Amino acid sequence: MHTDEYEISINRELNHHQHVVKKIRVALAERRQRYTMDYAEAAEAAAAGRLVITAKELAAWQEDVEALPQWEQRLEEYRKALAMMRISASRS
């Protein structure tokens, strides 16, 4: 059942998820550029003592790497829900 309030709520969630995904992607790109390697390489280099990075920064990097696919999946789910809602509303 389609309601304007439900669509507004879905849109808010969609916008929030888009913002978070963009923020994580930017953070990952900045780290990739700053350290000239991706997370897996950085973790290996830090463990071997070839990369100077704080444990906090490395943990934040790992957190972003692990969180991104989950946020992207939820974003896609909200996109599909909104599309289905609009399809069902147009048929009414």
Question: Could you please describe the fold and organization of this structure?
Answer:
- The structure is a single chain.
- This protein is mainly α and 92 residues long.
- It has helices spanning 4-35, 39-47, 55-91.
First-to-last CA distance:
10 Å
Radius of gyration: 19 Å
| General shape | rod-shaped
Look at the structure and give the mean pLDDT: 93
The percent of residues in helical segments reads over 70%
Helices, by number, come to: 3
Secondary structure category: mainly alpha
Name the assembly state. Answer: single chain
SSE order? HHH
Low-confidence regions:
none
Number of strands: 0
Fraction in beta strands = under 5%
Specify the biggest β-sheet. Answer: none
